[in-house]
Specification:
The protein has 245 residues and is α/β, with parallel strands linked by helices. The chain contains seven helices and ten strands. 31% of the residues lie in helices and 19% in strands. The N and C termini lie close together (10 Å).
């Protein structure tokens, strides 16, 4: 894992987007197209705002969605489909983006998107890390073993409180307790992983991911076993790191 620390989250987002765009262009040059994964949440605001301004032939890019709440309509402010359409899909000329529909039968939806992604080896995954160390919606203890590309997960209270704290819901009771998530092993199949983690509320999680054990109790710690992961931090999210980077 390569770690870069920036003074501000805007600088972090700009560099993560620039590096990711370079990898996308390289994939298009090598194979004629690129397959990418996009994350959501407050940690991705600056990166996505920069990514849509990058010079990329988006007509040759196929996009995939990391996770979505089960039962939440797309019109809800917290819908990740809504988030990605407004912040990415409607801003670039991408012609193929595969959303997770959390209003469909969950098992059938996992099967549907799983069959699609199996035909599209991922070149670049843009991800984040949760306050509880989750990767996508794989809360601790995460399943490191399943080979299913998408799985149904139960969200723990720490994860749900993060969603509340970020302002997506008015009360904790409104936050769904189940979601469809891309699995850990599917994320780890990506050729490159761009992991963007700003803000002081992520500092403890970052410390556990970078300096603790690789364990399902800190799901994102698995990223240390991926040979081409880049972790982008700002001064606040990196504040508790003690090791020499």
């Amino acid at each position: 894992m390569k770690i870069s620390i920036f003074k501000t989250k805007s600088a972090l987002g700009a560099k993560a987007a620039a590096d990711g765009a370079t990898l996308i262009r390289q994939a298009i040059a090598a194979r004629g197209r690129a397959n990418v994964i996009l994350a959501t949440g407050a940690s991705q605001f600056e990166m996505l705002a920069a990514l849509v301004k990058e010079t990329v032939d988006w007509s040759k890019v196929v996009g995939f969605h990391l996770d979505e709440y089960i039962g939440l309509p797309e019109t809800h402010p917290a819908s990740f489909r809504k988030y990605l359409k407004e912040r990415f899909v409607e801003k670039v000329p991408i012609q193929e983006f595969h959303f997770i529909n959390g209003e469909n039968d969950p098992l059938e939806e996992c099967k549907r998107v799983g069959e699609i992604i199996a035909r599209h080896p991922i070149d670049v995954a843009f991800v984040g890390i949760g306050e509880n160390g989750h990767l996508a919606f794989n809360d601790p203890p995460a399943d490191f073993l399943t080979e299913e590309p998408y799985i149904i997960v139960k969200l723990d209270e720490a994860c749900r409180r993060q969603q509340l704290g970020e302002g997506w819901f008015k009360t904790l009771d409104e936050v769904p307790d189940r979601a469809i998530s891309m699995s850990i092993r599917q994320i780890m199949k990506s050729r490159f992983i761009i992991c963007t983690v700003p803000d002081s509320r992520k500092a403890e999680s970052v410390k556990n991911v970078v300096e603790g054990e690789v364990t399902p109790d800190v799901p994102a710690s698995i990223l240390r076993q991926h040979p081409r992961t880049k972790l982008y931090l700002d001064a606040r999210s990196a504040a508790l790191l003690t090791g020499k980077l």
